Amino acid sequence: MKKNNSNQRDLVYVHLNETKQYVLSYGIEYPEFAQSLSDLMHNVLLLKHHFDDGDFNMHTLLEFVPNERLNNLAKDDVYGYGDFCWIDFEEEEGLNELTGQELAELLYLGHMKDHLKPPFYHRLRNRFVYLAHDDGWWNKVYYRNIRDFYRMLGDVLAGKMKESGLEKNLLGLKKKRDFPSVSMELLLNMKQMMKEGILISFHDTVQTRTSIEIPIWVLGDFDNMDDMYEEYENVARGKYDAKLLFDKKTREWKMYSN
């Protein structure tokens, strides 16, 4: 089991490091991230990529994607890049004012996928640092405001529900329909579990006449997603630790712990 695993879109692993302001994840892809938070992204400085529609910045000797072309980036095969790393910024003038030390820190971010200093720069006014290897397989995202993460996760979970076609009509046929985002308040109640490392499985969903139940397991802190997946296969045979429940009648989300 390695890369391109067929369950990648059906499983979401999240490990929250609140102190260092980053989230390590599996199962959340850049197009999903961008769809949720595009209104907060101005321009993107590419640290590792194979995107061929960027502009070149002479000061950093790096390519960037201006706001009007971010949709093209979201449509590209970023999974196929291998490493895909970027930092957002407000104005190109900010790029031109970066010091040599700051540029060295950015290059280190892209190369090592880790920070030397907290990676938020007043010259860039960035909200995010996005570091991925095989996008959706291993993603590490820094958030200036961690509430942006909860907003994104709520949108992504709703989107995965829609894509899975879990609701059925009277003939038993799957149908795709929109689901409301999972509320920030509900996700904040899951924060302690996320700090330990959780897996949310659409693959193991249970559907009844009145609800859809999505199991959650507390897996622990994993940096290697092969190891994470093996642990999921072990615990999936037993009882889950919590569940997300979607009430079909009220069309509301709830969360229950065991």
Topology:
Elements: E1 11-17, E2 22-26, H1 30-37, E3 43-48, E4 55-57, E5 62-65, H2 70-75, E6 83-89, H3 92-96, H4 100-112, E7 128-133, E8 138-143, H5 147-164, H6 184-188, H7 191-196, E9 198-201, E10 206-207, E11 211-218, H8 225-235, E12 242-247, E13 252-257
Antiparallel strand pairs: 1-2, 1-9, 2-8, 3-5, 3-6, 4-5, 6-7, 7-8, 9-11, 10-11, 11-12, 12-13
Helix pairs in contact: 1-5
Describe the structure in brief:
The protein is an alpha+beta fold and 258 residues long. The protein has helices at residues 30-37, 70-75, 92-96, 100-112, 147-164, 184-188, 191-196, 225-235, and strands spanning 11-17, 22-26, 43-48, 55-57, 62-65, 83-89, 128-133, 138-143, 198-201, 206-207, 211-218, 242-247, 252-257. The longest helix has 18 residues, at 147-164.
Give descriptors for this structure.
elongated, 258 residues, 8 helices, 2 domains, disordered N terminus, 13 strands, alpha+beta, 13-stranded antiparallel beta sheet, Oxalate:formate antiporter
Strand and helix order:
EEHEEEHEHHEEHHHEEEHEE
Helix content: 25-40%
Mean pLDDT score, rounded?
93
> Which overall shape is indicated by the principal axes computed on the Cα atoms?
elongated
Radius of gyration: 19 Å
* Span of the ends, CA to CA: 30 Å
Number of domain units? 2
H/I helix tally? 8
Low-pLDDT runs of 5+ residues are 1-5
Structural class: alpha+beta
